[in-house]
Amino acid sequence: MNNIEADFQEVISSWVKDVDTHCAVHLKNDRFLIPLIAGTVQGVTTSIKEQTKKTLAAGIKPEVIVEVIYQLAPGTGILRVQKSLIEVQKAFDEENIELKKITIDEDPEFGAKVQAKIYGTEIKNLLHDLPDQSGNFIPEALTEHFFNDFYGREALSVKDRERYGLLGLIALNVDFQIKAHARGSLKAGNSESELIWSVIQLLPYVGFPFVVNSAQVIHKSAVELGETK
Known about the structure:
By secondary structure, the chain is mainly alpha-helical. Helix content is 72%, strand content 0%. It is built from 14 helices and no strands. The longest helix has 24 residues, at 3-26. The relative contact order is 0.12. GO terms for molecular function: peroxiredoxin activity. This is Carboxymuconolactone decarboxylase. Residues 139-217 form the Carboxymuconolactone decarboxylase-like domain.
């Protein structure tokens, strides 16, 4: 580490520690996954290997780590996910970790049913007037290749998928999707407190503006749904 990097680490060390100390009071050990989400979405893989080791040491199953990163692909694209998984694999190799086979729900429409329950036809309605059937293809592809392809994989619950997915969208700073998935995460069983503290855990990686804006969106959604806690 050169002098500039060492100096920067000294400057930010109290900030990172302060965030982690406060989040540890409100979140379970799966908060260690949150820096992995931020790094993957941002395409910054320099700390992925070491963070993966920290996450394993916190008792998080390797299948959960992989599944959280897999699920980011529909939001951030496959290339950044592939880059991140290379570093995850290095950590697994160094720790002699072997993945167990993921079981998949027998219902091929499991994800579509989850989508319908939480989101209804929101995207289909939004895109209905696009030309040459493109307005049909995009929502159909979303249903098939996000919800059906991922949600039936039983390493993660729907509740956790919604929370981790929301954090990925916040790291991307996509306003419409953050609003939709804040509501979706609450409807899937996440509490307002859990979501906001999860966003706070993102703070060193995405900065204050993203966190302040997203916390307000989550709070407003919780108020509208009558689920403030």
